[in-house]
Amino acid sequence: MNWSPGLPLLLIATALATAAAHAQTPVTLPPGPGLKLVETHCTSCHGLDFITKQPRGKGTAFWAGSVAKMIDTHGAEIPPDDAKAIVAYLGRTFG
């Protein structure tokens, strides 16, 4: 490959254009009971896009397992009643 003086600039410009193309718009979740708890507890460790990228249609049991994993494995401090409301919201919304 021939390296020309302009090649590094082209590579930088390409990288910046690629990054801009992949920039994410802010994620919002549909309203409903439990949304505020999701926004409060879940976003203390990750973005809402983490939730929207999960497989759809797996039901409430999937979300119960996911929330339990966040608590048991990752140390999320979510009170039991809040966890139940979060699971119910996620199951209804993304079930």
Automatic annotation (TrEMBL):
GO MF term list: electron transfer activity; heme binding
Signal peptide: 1-23
Keywords from the named record: Signal
Keyword Kinase set for record: no
UniProt key word Signal: yes
InterPro entries from the UniProt entry: Cyt_c-like_dom_sf
Protein name in UniProt: Cytochrome C
Organism: Sandaracinobacter neustonicus
